[in-house]
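#structure-requests
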Amino acid sequence: MKANETIRAFLLRGEKEERFLISDIAQYGCSNGSISELIYYEDTVKFYEKHEEEIWDDLNTVAEDLGETIPFMISNWNGCKNITDATTFKNALAWWACENTAYNIETERELEKKTA
């Protein structure tokens, strides 16, 4: 991860370097190891801590868009079904942030195709 790199930039760089496909992350998520840098708790916690403000901004935006509270929204996301401590919580939110951002990138790409 590069300093001051957004989640979006991290994903676009990873795809450009052919380490993963954003479409796979959007469709299948992160729990299958699709992002090699985000498999182990040590790495996902580090990612969460680096991007904490951005993650919570995204959570707030999505919750507001859905008309839900963050706790309700998180409790209904599959990645948060087995939260047992701060580490698993940070891991889940790191994955959620990547999956949400990947979904947004893919949605933008689809819109660009339709308008091209």
